[in-house]
Known about the structure:
Radius of gyration: 18 Å
Structural class: alpha/beta
Keywords: Amino-acid biosynthesis, FAD, Flavoprotein, Methionine biosynthesis, NAD, Oxidoreductase
Shape: globular
Strand content: 5-15%
Organism: Roseiconus nitratireducens
CATH topology: TIM Barrel
Enzyme class: oxidoreductase
Protein name: Methylenetetrahydrofolate reductase
Helix content: 40-55%
Low-confidence stretches: none
Order of helices and strands: EHEHEHEHEHEHEHHHEH
Cofactor: FAD
Amino acid sequence: MTLPTKLADYFKGGRCAMSFELFPPKTDEGMALLEKNVERLQAFHPNFFTCTYGAGGSTQSRTLDVVEKVKAITGLPVASHLTCVGSTVDQLRDYLKEAKRRGADHIVALRGDPPKGSETFQAVEGGLRYANELVELIRADFGQHFGIAVAGYPEVHQEAPDPQTDLDNLKRKVDAGADVVVTQLFYENSDFYRFRDDCVKAGINVPIVPGILPVTNYKQACRIAAMCKARIPDEMAAAMNESDDADFQFNVGVDHARRQTIDLIENDVPGIHYYVLNKSSAAAQMLDGLSLGADA
């Protein structure tokens, strides 16, 4: 099988592409568990995996360990996240060189969140302020070697003063050379469809890929929604609050994500990116019997 040379190629050809996002475990035991879950997730024929890293740029080396490990296990392309947080331009270049050396295929280019306790992002001296500058750096130094994904926000980035400003920022990232937009998680598909339409009107002509998190309990849903400013539908909240039973809440959350997935496929999304939190049970139950990802 010949792998695509560009990230956007995964989202062509009529079949809904699929990717899974991982994070670097803190322990050797966590890495062993991650390997088992990756093997299970591979059975659903994803097109690629991505791996994030800790706040403030921590665990960067561990991220590249995961990149190498997942490539060895699956033979699939893997993307490394990269943020501007806490790094000079020279440090960003060094990371990209090491990512290339260790086999990363793509980069998820992000500005990154403000440090804990701060509401605003401050670039370090000699660093970058915006994700579009990071995309420009990658393209200037590495040409088309890396595919580049950037983030979009169906419910508007929490720091943006209004939706139009948020769209303008996204267009700058795409114009700088991004191949695809992967969205922040959301629970209402109508928010994604409105965002997709707004992107088209704004002249953003790369694939817009929805990001889905199958939540497995109500406390988790509330915590993540608060962090991401994602709205929890009343119907979902009411259903999860019917019982404190862990299995009940797991099934409600997974069923909601499955219904989101089916509706997205029916509305011709080019792919779906799943935030699986290094686990496979929820994804396996959600995806059972559905037709996504690379051809088996």
